[in-house]
Amino acid sequence: MYNKNNTLFIYCVFYFAFLYIPVLLLPIFSFNDSFHMVFPLKGFTFDWYIQMWNKSRLHQALFNSIKVGIIASVVSTFIALFAAKAFTRYKVKFHGLSYGAILLPFIIPEIIIAVALIVIWTSMGLKLGLIPVTISHILFCTPFCMLILISRMEGFDKSLEEASMDLGENSFWTFWRVTFPLLLPGIIASLLLAFVISFDEFILAFFLSSSDQTLPIYMWSQLRFPKKFPHILALGAIIIIVTSLIVMTAYWLRNLGQGKKKDFSIGI
Amino acid sequence: MNSTIQNIYFRSDQAKAYTLLSPALILVIFAMAAPMIVMIFTSFNTQISMIEIDRTFTTGRYEDFFSKPIFSMLLFRSVKISFFVTLLTLVTTYPLAYYIAFYVKKNKMLWIVLMTLPFWTSYLLRVFSWRVILGNKGVINSALMGTGMIDEPLGFLLYNQAAVIITLSHAWAAFAILPLYVSLDKIDKSLLEASYDLGNTKFETFWRVTFPLSLPGVIGAILIIFIPTVGDYVTPQLVGGTDGRMLSNMIQSLFGRANNFPLGAASAVLMLTTVCLIAALVTYITKKVSMRMS
Question: Which residues of A touch B223 (CB under 8 A)?
């Protein structure tokens, strides 16, 4: 009944091009020997990559982003791990309410969270910087991590845990020796994806970072100057390649040992 | 004594469940709920100097918001742009999700990965890329002028609402593809066969069986795209120009150069209220519709 549909297939190919062309333009122009992003291409150069290497503010921003990303991904994965365990193993009272509350930061416009945090932070007389940025990233990443971990937990056989308990292990050792190894691919996937989200996040960092720039804020500050712009393209090309590799690894890990599980609700 | 408490604790699944949930709930309460309450309080205050805020209660900021037409106009425009973004994204990604769910036999996972991968690459750079594509010296214009089809660059491509809508629709595609695909893939194929056996055409089957059954995915996609895009800042700032400015850009300037935190907070509160009302309305209507359809 559903063997072939060439019209739909051609449509998919076009949509695919629509999705990828904007992403692929940046790496192409990052090797172009001109300040302007205009076709036809002028000539091949590595200059922008070399220029990028010598920007000390970029290094600082990169370091800040990595720092925030690591802390945010580790903390939110931890928090999400507990929450996912609660939702998959127990019949939680007020399930819908707690579940919705934890997912909320992911759905409501980020600018509202940014405004709320900047208002409370400054009214307490605290200085803006990487600390509120990290807190906001933890808040934003946790729902994502929880969804990833819930789908991982639903995927494995509960009787393995029960067997361990029957054999006399207490709940801590059961978790450490049975549950944790089974969950590990999901945990690593959650760490990687949360890191990518935090690393890319703009609006929360834009409101809360003050003078401690993260990488997206650094890029934003350079967009206005055409002369400085090409090295952002080089940086962008590297970011695109590295994040794609990280995300593909995370996808692969998420489905590792899951067998033919049909539902891949990649984080949503 | 201690052991009885321990016993009660270990017997109560609720206590265990909520112990596990507590870090997440504490996070939401302290990093989201409390700040939002402070934001609401601040929206009833007055900024008196660069750093000082008068904490006496006043509804003045809301009066400011509604007395200056620009604010309501920007809020309305934000909602309007998000509406079109949601519509465009749904219409363009539905066939795709449909194709993957019903026609792709092997490597479905690969298709999904490829369709969602661009979503993970830097949002800022993707939006910027659209400026390069649509700009006066951009890819489209230089290509058209290179082939001699036009002499002057087409100025209407960039810095307007259409540019914002296209760019946002591109950026949020993954959020539509996934829920649509999941709901379409769940549909029992024998229902479709039954529909054909009863003499329905392909179109009738789609309209009467497939589409109603995919509604949960459609609602999911609507909410997950519409709500966040109302508050988008980057896209209108980079490709919107003055015509494409949205409320977020105003909010940002109130926290930046204009330095009026209370008015910024009031704008954020009104944005949130609008979004919640529309989300509730969408959920309510779709429930009614799906009840009538079945």
Answer: 107
